[in-house]
Amino acid sequence: MTVYLCSTQPDIFRFLANKIEKLGHFCLLFTDYTNMQNTLLKSNYLPDLVLIDYMTENHLLTTNPYEKIDKDKLYLPLIFYNDPCIAKGARASVWADIVKNCCNKDYLPEGKYIPTEKAMNEVLELVADFVESEQFSPYIYLMQKPLPFPESFTTDFLYEKFTYNKNHYKTIDGFQKETNLPENLFILLQIFFDHKDDLLSIVDLIELYTEKKNRITQASLKVMLSNLRSYFKRYPEFNYRLEHNAKGYKFSIV
Predict the structure, then answer these.
(1) How does pLDDT run across 42-75, given as a tens digit for each residue?
(2) Which of 44, 115, 51, 95 lies closest to 74 in space, CA to CA?
(3) What is the DSSP string of 242-253?
(4) Strand partners of residue 49
(5) Is residue 224 a contact partner of residue 202, using CB atoms and an 8 Å limit?
(6) Which tens digits make up the pLDDT trace of 74-106?
(7) N or C terminus: which one in the chain shows less Cβ crowding within 10 Å?
(8) Is 109 left (phi over 0), alpha (psi -120 to 50) or beta?
(9) What angle do CA 58, 60, 63 make, to 5 degrees?
(10) 208 and 191 Cβ atoms separated by less than 8 Å
């Protein structure tokens, strides 16, 4: 069968044209929609299938191609290979329905050969596999999976984060006010409070402190840990405990 392929991304779709020809079909690749239209108008023999990039037309302004084909009384199976309205995995079957139901065989020229349903479906499945493949899909217009929308951009997340930050540290705010705890030790206490009952290594603590405040050395951190434990001992009424073993430090409220 003869296939016309019109794409704004010829470097990619040469691979598809090659795959179609390996099935034993003839595939002509166009890089300009107008050139393809002119070729169709001048040709005495229409292709058996036309594959078009959805972006070659402004679908709000141009005539529905299937209506135009019907109006011109042509039998011309046509699909948009990167139609954004078709769900993944359904392309081949949707296209097969289009070819079957939207192409009027009454317009077939006398003696015109048409491919078998099996041959047509074989090509449609090949096209669907190509445009949805992990290898090519990320580079094809309209076929890329959208990146997950960052949770940090959502209104709900921002509100919850604001509320969390506002209320979360109330438990240890009293400790800071009562003891006049220095800012660097309060930040360290916040880290432990955020990771209450977790075992944090020295490396973990350095990374977490760096994220909250600034870079700190291991020696400075150990001095701060010792000072924070001293505060806990001086104010036992708060029931704060900082346990230490070879693997790290664990903060708890007893």
Answers:
(1) 888 899 999 999 988 765 666 778 888 888 888 9
(2) 44
(3) EEEETTEEEEEE
(4) 3
(5) no
(6) 899 999 999 998 988 999 999 999 998 878 888
(7) C
(8) beta
(9) 80
(10) yes
Whole-prediction pTM: 0.59
Instruction: Let me know: does 74 contact 50? Beta carbons within 8 Å.
Output: no
Cβ 143 vs Cβ 82: under 8 Å: yes
Which contacts of 229-235 are long-range, i.e. CB under 8 A and separated by 24 or more positions? 231/179, 231/181, 231/185, 234/179, 235/175, 235/178, 235/179
Summarised one tens digit per residue, pLDDT across range 94-151 is 999 999 887 888 888 887 889 999 999 999 999 999 999 999 999 999 998 777 766 6
Q: Can you tell me which residue has the tokens 């434990």?
A: 229
> Which strands sit side by side in the sheet containing 248-253, from one edge to the other?
199-200, 248-253, 240-245
CA-wise closest residue to 126 among 23, 46, 4: 23
Residue 10 CB-density burial (10 A; 0-12 exposed, 13-18 middle, 19+ buried): middle
Residue 80 — φ and ψ, nearest 5°?
Answer: -95, 110
